[in-house]
Amino acid sequence: MSIRALLPVAVLSVLLIGALAWHLGAGAHAVPPRAVISALLSGGESYDAAVIAGIRLPRALGAMLAGASLSAAGALMQGATRNPLAEPGLFGLLAGAALAVVAAQGVFGLGAPSLVPLLAAFGALVGALMVWGLTTAAGGGAGMLTPVLAGAAVSAFLAALTTLLNLVDERNFEDLRVWLSGSLAGLRMPVVGMVAPWALAGLAAALLLAPKLTVLSLGDESAQGLGVPVARIRVLTLVAVVVLTASAVALAGPLAFVGLTVPHAARLTFGSDYTRLLPASIALGAIYLLAADTVGRTLIAPAEISTGILTALVGAPVFVALLKVRG
Amino acid sequence: MVEIAPDKPGRITVRGLGVRRGETQALRGVDLDIVPGAMTALVGRNGCGKSTLLKTIARILRPETGEIEVDGTTLARLSPRAAAQRMALLPQSPILPEGMRVRDLVAQGRHPHRGLVRHWSPEDDAAIDAAMAATDTVQFADRRLEALSGGQRQRCWIAMTLAQDTPILLLDEPTTYLDLSVQLEIMGLLARLARKGRTILVVLHELNLAAAFADRIVMMRDGQIDAEGPPSEVLTAPLLQRVFGLDARIIADPDTGRPVCLPRTAA
User: Fold this and answer.
1) Fold of B1-86+166-267
2) Interface probe, candidates A212, A226, A228, chain B, greatest B C-beta count within 10 A
3) Inter-chain CB proximity A226 and B59 less than 8 Å
4) What is the pLDDT of residues A212-269, one digit of tens each?
5) Is A325 in contact with A54 (CB distance < 8 Å)?
6) Other beta carbons within 10 Å of B116
7) Which residue ranges does UniProt annotate as crossing the membrane (chain A) (predicted)?
8) Cα angle at B142 between B140 and B143, to 5 degrees?
């Protein structure tokens, strides 16, 4: 590999390690860097080691997986739809996943953590299909805002159902309130270990789909001429997006705008070739959520700001900027 | 005129092709042999089915009846990738990928030659270099596509289809929206490629471009082929009247001897 190809890899690696160290060390109880390293390497019985291994490490891994998954899902959606505003939140997948999890727990009593990724995947798929159906009914993919409007309508509808369920079952609501705002608080290692294979499979699929999405960016007819089975690639992309979104929701609840903010930040440096954009989005997504979660935990410590609130605060201006540039 | 060499690759055979687009029957029983190693122009009025025929050969549209063979192999039996190793397509309005550099665009032409996990080979680089040299786009290699003029951009798209390294090249109205001098430049490029042995099938709107550059002209009317042959045989006043509803004289180009269509404009 040339220096030009290695430099971004080196920079992203340094940023990732830096963000991870910051996340593990900072917090209501600050742990000095040396103690972080010794806790990771040799464990131990100290309070610091218990905080690192039991609380912060699962949380950091969850942040990395959720950030990488949502960013990859956003980039995949933007490639498959050729719509720069495509993103799991704006296109109804997050609202669908959240409702499915809440409904299963509240109505059917299906609260087992192992079920959460499956429920979230089902809900994300239903949300995506509702938005797709509404967009088609409104005259197809004309204009990049049509699916965003459909996404807003579907998300509002599904969120209303979620709120309704919560009002009916207030005790459950207390448990889910923080999760619904998009939070990594209280994430434990067994849940991370259960979701990780799904997330990693989705990320691998995203990397395999990347060269096809670059070809797809030349238009459907060009892509077909270049031997890309367009319909099949779109279906496979939807499957990968649903798996990635479900993984992120199972770890951190619905985190708004991550799938929009990170790929577009990556585009500024890495261009729109998906073979570069997807790996870059995955790395930047992990870094972004590590940083957002650390800020959320330290800004008003010992209280916490949900990560989802921070990603929305950053993401909404990005959305507006994209509208101004592309609109 | 071109010798018909049976052993040249790139022979397309169309038999009994019927295609329906929505409510209308766009093609009704088309039979056609595309001569390998020559440029064939598809002409006709709007809605006559010329683009439909090209898109069906390119496998973008599915035929209702009939069959297309490429060098004796039924097209429908080929995988998308195998078909893309035999035919390259330049659609009428491909999408300009944002921020893509010319060389990266041309490199997309190598897509059908790569496996699931990408392996970049010296062969790929050689094909890209040759394609850019043939289209005179080497000097744009590191430029962004959106920074080029319409004609330069069109040459880059053609370079991408050449990098695909296929015996057959399909083009849907490649000269539309270009200045006349640029139209001539693009057609000259296609004629050179045909002389080097590629089979070129091109939908053209401009009759005189077809007459000046194509080896063969296929005239279509109402989803059927009305006439087919070298320009000097096909471009006749009665045929133009029948196919285009055009009152025109045919004169010979003093330089090339090729027919030129001169519509009567006197009131």
Assistant:
1) Rossmann fold (3.40.50)
2) A226
3) no
4) 999 999 999 999 999 999 999 999 999 999 999 999 999 999 998 999 999 999 998 8
5) no
6) 7
7) 60-77, 89-108, 115-135, 147-168, 189-210, 235-262, 274-291, 303-323
8) 60
DSSP secondary-structure letter at B216? E
Tell me the C-alpha distance between A191 and B160, whole Å. 48
- pLDDT tens, position by position, B174-212: 998 888 999 999 999 999 999 999 999 999 999 999 999
- Indicate yes or no: CB of A214 within 8 angstroms of CB of B116: no
Please report residues of A whose CB lies closer than 8 A to that of B70. none
- Chosen from A83, A144, A222 to mutate, greatest number of chain B CBs within 10 A: A222
Name the burial class of residue A220, with classes exposed (0-12), middle (13-18) and buried (19+) by CB atoms within 10 angstroms of its CB: middle
What CATH number is attached to the domain comprising A53?
1.10.3470.10
B55 neighbourhood in chain A, CB within 8 Å: 221
Residue type, B70: V
List, in order, residues 6 or more apart from A310 with CB less than 8 Å away.
A292, A295, A296
Helix, strand, or coil here: B33? strand
ipTM of the complex: 0.89
**Chain A neighbors of B59, CB-CB under 8 A:** 224
Closest among A274, A273, A261 to A312, alpha carbons compared: A261
B55 vs A: CB within 8 A: yes
